[in-house]
Amino acid sequence: MSSATPSRRGFISPRPLARMGPLLRPYASRLAIAFVFLLIAAAAGLVFPAVLRYLLDAAFEQGDRGALDRIALGLLGVFAVQGIANYIQVRLLSSSTERIIATLREQTFAHLIRLSAAFFTERRTGELTSRLSSDLALLQSLLGTWLSEFSRQILFLLGGVLMMVFTNPLLALTTLAVVPLVVGAALTFGRALRRASTGVQDRVAEAMGMADEAFGAIRTVQSFTREGEETRRFRGLLQDLVTVAVQRARTRALFFSVVGFVAFGSVAAVLWQGGVQVLAGQLTAGALVAFLFYALFVAAAVGSIATLFGHFQEAIGAATRVFELLDTEPSVQEAATTTHLTSPVQGAVSLEAVSFRYADGQPNVLHEVSLTVAPGEVVALGGRSGSGKTTIASLIPRFWDVTEGRITLDGVDVRALPLQALREAIGMVPQESVLFSGSIRENIAYANPDATDEDVMRAARAAHACEFIERLPDGWDTRVGERGVKLSGGQRQRIAIARVFLKNPAIVILDEATSSLDTESERYVEQALEELLQGRSTLIIAHRLSTVRRADRVVVIDRGRVVETGSHDELLTREDGIYARLYQIG
Ligand code: ADP
């Protein structure tokens, strides 16, 4: 599943718009005031041709200089009112919409960051960030300008038509004859535009997803010298993007040209018919000019409404996407009624006949696995690569939920515990420690933002990280670069260990690094781990002999089943045992 396809059946689907309601509510009064000023500005705009009519007739028909002066001054007043009203409206509206979109962005981010591992294995992060930026930018345009422009143009349309009928009913009839044509065009093209636009947004998200992935794995890309290939892949995606974008532009261009021609064609008809009336003395020149202005207003309004309608379709496509993300339920759900752990957490972990598959329809990767880690015990998981060790480790903090069987912590099913309490009880040291782009101090304090400098230092000391931190030019304030690229593997690992010290969990899950560290780092990491595991229940995905030796028990996993259990020495004595064989090879 790359991205779900939203329903494109409805012409304007009201659902995404209705969903915006609660977001708009806090700003209802501001938006209402903005609308009043919009009305004032539009009214001023509509009054202008009427004033113009008297101005022209005063000058050309009556030759009244005094009237001309007064009317010109009045006209200035009308424009001033329009300017001020526009200013207030735009200010009120944009300050509200900026906040509304920020709220929606935040809600989307807050929602996404809580989704389960399953979601993130299916969606690329770059695609998600693209949705957060470009789809929401479309929505912002909708609220910020398109909606107010739409209202303004509707007012101009209605007001213009009224004034036209009022000025000259016969001419009005000629002009309005084109309206059904324009509406028909809008209906035909609108749907095509929405489809094209959703296609463009999807391609943008896809391309961004790919770029993000390439940057994320920059070392791999460069070490295999695949820069050219990646660029080619990106170019391929961009070409797709260009194809759909050009298609959209073509639809748009055709749409606007057709609508423009129809609208302005009617202006030509009005000029002709009006000219005939002026020649016959049935119409003053001022009234014809005023009428023309109204006709232009109406034509421009119809054109803009059609354009905006196209934009609406784009924004609705974007909104649908965003709300779809917001509707994604985490596959790992908080229990309706939760049981609390007795404090302090003892750290007894037990897997009871756990079977697991990553998705429905896929084969089980774990088959009735049962194992226990008693409080304070160190258990190593051994076995070939791909046997299911990492999977077991990720079921305990509920990154995924078991398919069958259950996992308990201090005798309570982990699914009955509040997620936060469960995860607070577990400290994880991953194979590749991921750091954030802040300072070393911030990176350690990530485990507990309330920690004092004192606490952070104590944790770093326990993790044997002080040794290198204090030698760095900026010490604790050294910035580690994105994902910690400025530190060595061993250094990153010690920071990750310091984090867990600071967290002080009852249970530690350690995925041992496969890549070998330099001897000095290795020694420090060993010592740090030695201290970290003191008195904590520990599950280690073991790759090193020194670790398995230290474990109280080794549980050997093969093809998702527990096949052997015992101490390192016991397991070695089993001649035909998998462990003994693995050990001989390794
Ligand atoms: P180990 O840690 O022992 O090397 P893993 O637990 O990583 O093994 O993998 C066990 C099996 O589960 C492998 O066959 C692997 O391909 C599969 N697997 C791992 N992660 C996923 C995933 N996100 N989706 C589907 N299958 C997965």
From TrEMBL:
Its main location: membrane. It is a multi-pass membrane protein. Residues 32-314 form the ABC transmembrane type-1 domain. The chain crosses the membrane at residues 31-56, 68-88, 154-187, 253-273, 285-309. The keyword S-adenosyl-L-methionine does not apply. Coiled coil: none annotated. It comes from Gemmatimonas aurantiaca. GO terms for cellular component: plasma membrane. One of its GO terms (molecular function) is ABC-type oligopeptide transporter activity. Keywords: ATP-binding, Membrane, Nucleotide-binding, Transmembrane, Transmembrane helix. The lineage of its organism: Bacteria, Pseudomonadati, Gemmatimonadota, Gemmatimonadia, Gemmatimonadales. Pfam families: ABC_membrane, ABC_tran. It is found in: Cell membrane. GO terms for biological process: oligopeptide export from mitochondrion. InterPro entries: AAA+_ATPase (IPR003593), ABC1_TM_dom (IPR011527), ABC1_TM_sf (IPR036640), ABC_transporter-like_ATP-bd (IPR003439), ABC_transporter-like_CS (IPR017871), P-loop_NTPase (IPR027417), Type_1_exporter (IPR039421). This is ABC transporter ATP-binding protein. The keyword ATP-binding applies. It comes from the Bacteria. Residues 349-584 form the ABC transporter domain.
